[in-house]
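Q: What does the assembled structure look like for these inputs?
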Amino acid sequence: MKEDFYKKIFDPDKISEKPEVLEGIRVLELCNVVLGPALTDFLAEFGAEVIKVELPGIGDVMRTVTPSFFYYRNLSPGFEEQNHNKYHVAIDLRKPEGKELIYRLAGKCDIVVDNYRPGTLDRWGIGYRQLSNLKPDIIYVACSGFGQWGKNALRVSYDAVAQAESGLMHITGFPGRPPIKSGAWILDFQTSITGAIAILAALIYRRRTGKGQFIDVTQIESAIRMMDWTWIYIWLTGKDRERVGNKDLAIVPSNVYRAKDGFVAIAAFTPDEFLALCSAMGREDLKKYKNPEDRFHPEVLEEIDKTVSKWCEEHTCNEIESLGEKYGFPCSKVLSPEDVYNSEHFRARRTVWMLEDHLYGELAEVQAIKMSETPGRIKWVGRPVGFDNEHVFIRLLGMSVDEIKSLEEKGVIGKWSDRKGSSPPEDWDGKAGLFF
Amino acid sequence: MRDYFEWAKSLTDPAKVHEKPEALEGIRVLDISYGNFAALFASSILAELGAEVIKIEPPEGDIARKMTPFGIKHKDTGLAFLAEGRNKYYITLNVYTERGKELYKKMVKKSDVVIESFKPGEADELGIGYKNLAEENPRLIYAAISTTGSFGPGVKKMRSYDIIEQARSTLMYMTGEAEFDPEVPEEYKIPLREGNWLGWYTGGAWTAYGILLAIFWREKSGKGQFIDVSPCECLLRHSNYFLQYYHESKRVVPRSGPYDPAVFAYTVVKSRDSYVFIAGYSDPNWKGLTDLIGRPDLFERFPTPKERLVFENQIEMRKEIEKWSLERESDEIIRLVQEHNLDETKTGTVVVGKVYSPKQASENDAHYERDILKIFRDPYYGELLVQGSSFSKMSETPGRIKWLCRPIGADNVYIYAKVLGLDAKDLKLLKETKVI
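A:
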């Protein structure tokens, strides 16, 4: 009955009937790679109209970033992951007429997101200083590795630079083994969600006061911010934080264990969860460590960890998960992309979001939080370079066909090159997927 | 450039933060989570942006206060809780009693946002779930955080833990030492967690984003809503192209340690004194990197991603780069790279970062200059090194820290008087009946 209530308010079949919270908010994306494009992607998922500006020809670098040189109907998965629901135009920003076009577009936008090296767009005359003169209530987010000012402002950065310099990489890995960089570009994404939060706060403030603002978000600061107890611990103890594999120094037990047929994560900190785990293992003797604070003692910790480890080796992931449910301790198999892809649960929640794209056919995307009134949605996926030139320049800017032609001839605007990742699928009929 | 940096700093100068307005002033948030740092991070973000966050704990305190490295406490508070205690008000309330429920409902009626981390269904069983609360306050924005979320065929009644969120995100499966590197001992070729509470911090950021979207929507429509957050789904959204690539190729990329399946060079190598991350993966940047290390032969042998994405080649190229880096200190490498990048006669941009331990990172004055690390003097907890707000560089409504944390129930008098008009006699009775 109660479960039905949630099924009803989150009914996936009703998503397309519901409103989009950011409808009417227009965003100009002057970005490349992941941090920046992911930020506007998070806005586009909730209804913002994102105009992504790329260089004519090869476009965004991510169009050619793909594992093992794999393309899916000319689409690179590395580009696909953070480019949904956007309009793709190609403008050469370095040409005077290109700048002129940016002014015209920015004049019709609420938000500008930039991830060029700090100061670059300002030097080109299309940074916040110039655009805010044109449109004072614009909200401008500048994304970078180290910030728009400060002693490292000139340094170039990628995700892993911030993983390295924050100390995050140092605390990831096994003791006595090298530090490990994350399997994903986590700080590009974390900084993007940080920027998206800042934009929403700025939109709420703008609605109240009419004022726009300038926002500076960085990879290194996202990393430092999310390193939980690290800084207070260093301050109070004078000690460093080291890598400890899959253990958690602040939660006992919490670890990843080898089961018969895979790996399983188990955590049981509260007394009821810990007692449940002991019962499931048939280890009444360990119930004396019911109080979580008693479990931090190195010998106790070791005893519990070894016991759980040994017990897991004798069971399959499924068995452990069933026992977790039966007795009441949290656990889960370590899921592979294949596991998640095939999971009925993630499909039913539309976390694994299947769609039939006009250009690329059947695709699988990811949708994160579920909102009952204004759910996020995936409508289409990363389109070829300049694919929406006509749609944007004619419908939004009211350009004539002649003007478009002339700008094309001068190389101010353009479309894809024949390079993989920037062009439509090879069997494209010249029409499919076009909005205009 | 100088002019740009000075101007950018004048807009977002940390010294002026406290003179500026707060974006979320007037928004009241109840955080009734238990043992959950996704929720605590979400409410920290809202509190940094000016919301009035009331943290509701059971009379014995939130068990999150006990999740602390080695069990270390500072003034009876765990270090992780101290890091996420900022700007909040602390009250106690036992919602497992009838009177407690009644008071909670009254509080909710006068609030804008609730954040909770009950096991799915638990709040409804107690009669304080979204359905009941929204009937009395249709403007209520309600965020529920749990591992499986509140609906779907795989809903499980378990509390959320970071290790389990990481395990279910695919990121853990994809992070760890390189499976294809013959020099890595077999026992280390296993899934690895990110060293911080990445699952929780990612889930927390998305919770805050959902709440702000909902506030924005409510100002337009007058309607509140339910936000269902599963932190592992948020982390899945940050996990590159893993799911898309599986759908398209039915393959899973291997765990890659210091390598990357989609780009090279994007790698970690040893230097004379530590490790450095070094990158140059597009063709011109790879050319730049091979020029920098004086090995144009590497560029000739591996000129395109086709050659560079072959794992055997990556192992070989990395070894060659490491020969160069092992002869130099990390700081020297960073200097050489910067010189290369600023020299316009050189090809390509090389990106580099030094792998710092957290303690070394905490000694970097750049982080204090940018106010992302700060020694904060709290009235109760004294001087502590903490992470600043990642929203502190918003020009009009910067995020900020006002105080670090408060003991259990420290704000009972103020909040119960302010919100519910309870006087000394009322509170005495509540205390006697163990409601607070």
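Chain B has two domains: 13-238+372-432, 266-270+275-355.
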